[in-house]
Structure formats: C-alpha cells, structure tokens
Amino acid sequence: MRARDLMTTSPICVTSRTRLGETIETMYANDVRHLPVVDGTRLVGIISDRDLRALWDPVMNVQIGDGRAYDRRVSDYMSRDPVTVEEEDEVEEVIDLLLEHRVGAIPVVDADGMLVGIVSYMDVLKAARDKL
C-alpha cells in the first residue's frame, strides 16, 4: 500500500496570509486538525491545532478571545518545512514518519513540491481497520 492509497486528495488549505480567525473557523467547519499552507499549489508549511495552542500561552499575552489573535496571520504560527511524503512512498514509511516526528498528518507532494494530498493518522487507522 502506498501514500496515494490513503491520502485525502485536494485537501482544504490556507495561505500564509490567511488570518487565524478564518483558519480556526475552517478547521472547525471541516472537522480537521491540520491544514496545509500553500502558495498557489506549492506547500510552504502546515498549521495544526497544536500550533494554535500557542494562542493560550500566557507569555505571549494573547488569548483566542481577543481580536488581536484572530487578526494574526498563519505565517506566525505554522510549521515551516513540514515532513512530507510522495504519492509512491510506502505506507510503512508514512507511519514511521508520523511516529518519528510525532505529527498527526503528513502532506503528500509531487516531485516539484506541489501539494497533491495529505495523510493523517486517522487515514492510517481506517486502512488498518479495513485489513483486520
């Protein structure tokens, strides 16, 4: 089995200039925890619910409830240079990367770095369940 067999094609994305308020609403409305960040179709980062936890960091003196947080940009919180796989990579490699990097999703890119999908740990679990 390969990454292409598990991945969600045409994942919901945001740009680095998307405001956090819109990003949070997009995650909530689509019941996702990870959004690839793109410039056109080129992957430039990923933002997850884990990245957004920084909004509750008392050191930053910003909380989700104040307007300043909603107006900040994804680029301030996204993970740059995320771990990626290609469509032909084996599922075992995807699993190893999820575990090694302690991430919940890995973007799938083509040879030119263009985003073609995303594989989450939920996708892996669903595939494993179907094999039981």
Would you kindly provide a written description of the structure presented here, covering whatever features stand out?
By secondary structure, the protein is α+β, with helices and mostly antiparallel strands. The chain has a single domain (3-131), classed as CBS-domain. It has 6 helices and 7 strands. The strands form 2 sheets. It has a 4-stranded mixed β-sheet with strand order 1-7-6-5. A 3-stranded antiparallel β-sheet has the order 2-3-4. A hairpin with a 5-residue loop joins strand 6 and strand 7. The chain is globular.
- CATH superfamily placement: CBS-domain
How many strands appear in the DSSP assignment?
7
| CATH C-level category | Alpha Beta
Ranges with pLDDT <50 over ≥5 residues?
none
When the domains are counted, the total is 1
Strand content: 15-25%
Q: Indicate the percent of residues in helices.
A: 25-40%
Short structural summary:
This protein is an alpha+beta fold.
Write the layout of secondary structure elements.
Elements: H1 3-6, E1 8-9, H2 20-30, E2 34-39, E3 42-48, H3 49-52, H4 67-71, E4 79-80, E5 85-86, H5 91-101, E6 105-109, E7 115-120, H6 121-131
Parallel strand pairs: 5-6
Antiparallel strand pairs: 1-7, 2-3, 3-4, 6-7
